[in-house]
Write a structure and sequence with these properties.
This protein is an alpha/beta fold and about 110 residues long. It has a domain of about 60 residues: Dna Ligase, domain 1, CATH 3.30.1490.450. Helix content is about 10%, strand content about 20%. It has a 3-stranded mixed beta sheet with strand order 3-5-4, with helices on one face. The protein has a two-stranded parallel ribbon with strand order 1-2.
């Protein structure tokens, strides 16, 4: 049965063990686990503003569920406690048009 050991440790049971160590010798400074960032494409929501989410349930009311919004919910599924996200885009152009029915006296719908 494989296991993990640290330098200088003597195992009581025979087997295959794996040793992990930092080759650089210095641990990463200032790393914070559990916080993620995402730039998403969504159908609605504030454009080019940083939005902070504390849970996956808060994402859909802000950005919906289409396009790349699933990235944020998957980050929570992967262990993030907090995700900061931005909906990137230019806002597009609004469409203009009118629908008419086919009755004898057409009415705008």
């Amino acid at each position: 049965m494989p296991g993990i050991f640290t330098i200088g440790e003597t195992k009581a049971r025979p087997g295959v063990y794996t040793r992990y160590e930092n080759a650089g010798g210095i641990p990463p400074a200032g790393a914070i686990n559990g916080i993620g960032a995402a730039v998403v494409k969504a159908n609605w929501g504030p454009l080019n503003q940083l939005i902070e989410f504390d849970g996956a349930n808060a994402v859909a009311p802000v950005f919906g569920t289409a396009l790349t919004v699933g990235t944020i919910t998957e980050m929570f599924a992967g262990g993030c406690r907090k995700v900061k996200a931005v909906r990137a885009g230019t806002g597009g152009t609004a469409t203009a048009g009118a629908l008419k029915d086919t009755a004898d006296a057409p009415v705008d719908v």
